[in-house]
Amino acid sequence: MSLSDEHRRVLEEIERAPEEDDPQFAATVTTEHFQRLRRRWVIIPASLFLFGAVLLVSGLVTHAQLIVGVTASIIGFLTMPAAVVLFPHRHPHLMSGSGSRSTRVLG
Q: What is the pTM of this model?
């Protein structure tokens, strides 16, 4: 549904208001800030999952000492579900890439 000219003008005024009232605050809640957060909430769990998978496999193929291999495998096995819990589906507001800055800040 398209916005009328009046509603579009009001929306633009709402978007400009924080920049005019408090430029320092407006600079901290930019779209770039949310993009960095979104990227971070994808990269960290994915890296953690990969680390857990590497630990699990390395623990399975370790022939040096049994206790080291079992411990690495258990830590890797527990790390992978923890990464899945942290994955962005738990934070859907960080995954939405659409919408204007004001809807993300206010909504």
A: 0.52
Range of the structural domain that residue 47 is part of: 5-106
In this structure, the number of other CB atoms found within 10 A of the CB of residue 82 comes to 12
> How many domains would you assign to the chain?
1
String of DSSP letters for 35-102: HHHHHHHHHHHHHHHHHHHHHHHHHHH--S-HHHHHHHHHHHHHHHHHHHHHSGGG-HHHH---S-HH
62-89: pLDDT as tens digits? 877 888 888 889 999 999 988 888 776 6
* CA distances (Å), origin 94, targets 70, 81, 105: 36, 20, 12
The pLDDT averaged over each successive group of 10 residues in the chain (107 residues) is 84 81 74 74 87 90 83 90 76 50 43
